[in-house]
Amino acid sequence: MIHSQKEAFFEKMDQEFIGLTYADVQVEPARGEFDAREVDLTSRFSRNIELKSPIVSAAMDKVTTSDMAIAMAKLGGIGVIHASLSAEDQRNEVRRVKKHLNGLISDPVCVHQDDSIEQVLNMRDDRGYGFSSFPVIDNAGKLVGLIAQNDFDFVEDNSDSISTAMKPAEEIVSAINVTSIQDAYAIMRKNKVQKLPIVNSDNEVIGFYVWKDVERIITQNSGLYNVDAYGSLLVAAAVRTDPSEAVERVDAMQKYVDVIVLDSARGDSKHIFKTLGAIKSSFPEIDVVVGNVSAADSAKDLAAAGADGIKVGQGPGSICSTRQETGIGIPQVTAVYRCARAVENHNIPVCADGGIVDKGDVTKAISAGAESVMMGSLLAGTKEAPGKIIEDGKGNRVKIYRGMGSLKAFQDNDASRERYGAVSDHMPLPEGVESVVPYKGSVLDVASMILKGLRKGMEYSGCVSIQELREKSTLIRNTPAGIIEAKPHDVRVITLSEQI
Ligand code: IMP
What we know:
Blueprint: H1 4-15, E1 25-27, E2 43-44, E3 50-51, E4 55-57, H2 66-74, E5 78-81, H3 87-98, E6 104-105, E7 111-112, H4 117-126, E8 134-137, E9 143-147, H5 149-153, H6 162-165, E10 167-168, E11 175-176, H7 181-191, E12 195-199, E13 205-210, H8 211-218, E14 236-239, H9 243-253, E15 259-263, H10 270-282, E16 287-293, H11 296-304, E17 309-312, H12 322-326, H13 332-343, E18 350-353, H14 360-367, E19 372-375, E20 390-391, E21 397-402, H15 407-412, H16 414-419, E22 434-438, H17 443-461, H18 466-471, E23 475-477, H19 480-485
Parallel strand pairs: 4-5, 4-19, 5-14, 7-8, 11-12, 14-15, 15-16, 16-17, 17-18, 18-19
Antiparallel strand pairs: 1-23, 2-3, 6-13, 8-9, 9-10, 12-13, 20-21, 21-22
The structure holds inosinic acid.
Inosinic acid (IMP) is lined by residues 58, 60, 292, 313, 317-320, 322, 353-356, 374-377, 403-406, 431-432.
């Protein structure tokens, strides 16, 4: 239950028809007997999908493909692979995240004994695999050997066939029909092997175990990584609003994806309800987060229609011009509070999407009722975000970050047009802009700092868990002078690059 102070606070605002956003509020400090390192960031993205930290990367073409999603899951959050890819490319991106670390790899990438070493290395690089161990098969699909990084290291001629470099079947350990990770652990430990191909009674490869993953899972030492029951990283994927397209995509990805995000600028349109129904009836076991909305009634209706999570935000995004172009919108803190309140009885979480500018906004979003926070601009410009590093002409390294409703995104793909309500080839009203953001290095560093900000905010507000931050914390409204006071002021801040 969200704290009664917040109820009174927002009721008062409602009486005066005032909507608030992040800069308008602060979470009030309160006593707590713990420090930032002790807080628990466990949360939820959807009804059944847990997070070890409440951060989500946006389903945008300059923010989330597999590299970003891998990094987010390693930080305890989740990444949403954007939908402006062909169905096949999107599936491959999702698959790449799922296969990044694995317990049982149920359909391992195998190579043929007659492939050249060069072919295999090229295939590995083209598909962006972060691993170099492959079971080797013959024409009949039977296991004939294993090739690993160590074997590639000692190759003299890359045009040689894999069969010349691999360890043949008689020198490796494999197991028949072993699917339990406990059995795999025991076999690998006993034989001191790093890799264990699993075959069926016809010697066809049906699985693969890698020691460092098996050990991590058995010793329960996945640390901050956000993993599924098999020890693989969690991953989300966005789908478009057309029901049959959405169902086809989910079908193609269902083997690898953990949660679907049904994504539209108007998450309460009749198409969305239809598509939600279509996905849930075909795949009742997969959680579907639906958005974006900002009105309480829309959130409630989506919950009643079977949504497993609600994504809130219409117009707060850094690259968004929806409010300017159309005049609609509810400032984000008010929108998050109203929607979180509206779905409280359905026991599904709200994700606050867009408008996070300062790290402290994450603390504020959760205090307002969100269980996770989706970010675009803060994560864009990192190494893991898709796109090249470019020079802006003033000697700065930058990357492009653009709204999915920008003219450029519309020109590049029809998924963006569909998100903004396009029918067939018609060009919708642009509701976003194209921008550049500074190159920021690895998102692991950037997002770790965001999480440090959240931990510290929780320490200051005396809330030891995300649930407490939602339920116990209290908000206070900033005055215009308070907004100025809330940032460094009345000094000239020295940037790191300045020599003084
Ligand atoms: P940011 O974190 O403030 O940059 O906001 C990112 C969010 O903005 C995304 O997750 C989307 O919900 C939203 N968004 C993405 N593209 C557009 C657009 O072109 N117009 C409006 N909102 C957008």
